[in-house]
Write a structure and sequence with these properties.
- This protein is an all-beta fold.
- 0% of the residues lie in helices and 54% in strands.
- It contains no helices and 17 strands.
- The chain has a six-stranded parallel β-sheet with strand order 1-4-7-10-13-15, with no helix packed on it. Strands 2-5-8-11 form a four-stranded parallel β-sheet, with no helix packed on it.
- A hairpin with a 5-residue loop joins strand 16 and strand 17.
Length: 155
């Protein structure tokens, strides 16, 4: 079993221009606690491969994030619980995140992610929270298609 805990703004796993490839599968436990930290962050063309990992995030900036062209976080067949007021999944400036087969559990005032529908995708998501969360779908042209906020239970 591999346990990594990021505290006070740190990233549990970080890749910039290289590749982090976990072979631990379901025996990898990433935790991010308090501050502007992340469980996993890829930038500068870096790649992080986390198949089957368990990620728990409490009051941190995001669970997994990717920024810059060529950057990728592959969080596949995994479980991620996000409890806070930030994003469970975040990408910017051409970074990508692959969540194939991953279960997201949201608590607190968390936001799963913003979705850019270029191309559109569907993901299995479990919403488990008592305070509002938001999911925004955006057309490729930048206009808002749908914004769902202020709901307290999954219907």
């Amino acid at each position: 079993t591999v346990r990594i805990t990021a505290k006070n703004g740190a990233a549990g796993i970080y890749a910039s221009g290289g590749t982090v490839d976990s072979k631990s599968g379901a025996n990898l436990y990433l935790t991010s606690e308090a501050g502007k930290g992340l469980a996993a962050y890829a930038s500068g063309g870096g790649t992080i491969n986390l198949t089957g990992a368990t990620i728990n995030v409490t009051n941190s900036a995001a669970g997994v994030a990717s920024s810059d062209p060529g950057s990728m976080v592959n969080l596949t067949n995994a479980n991620m619980l996000y409890d806070g007021n930030g994003y469970a999944v975040y990408s910017t400036n051409g970074g990508k995140v692959n969540l194939s087969g991953t279960k997201l559990i949201l608590k607190g005032s968390s936001t799963a992610f913003d979705v850019d529908l270029t191309p559109s995708a569907t993901l299995p998501i479990t919403l488990d929270f008592n305070e509002p969360a938001a999911l925004t779908l955006v057309f490729p042209f930048g206009s808002t298609f749908l914004s769902v906020t202020g709901f307290n239970r999954l219907l």
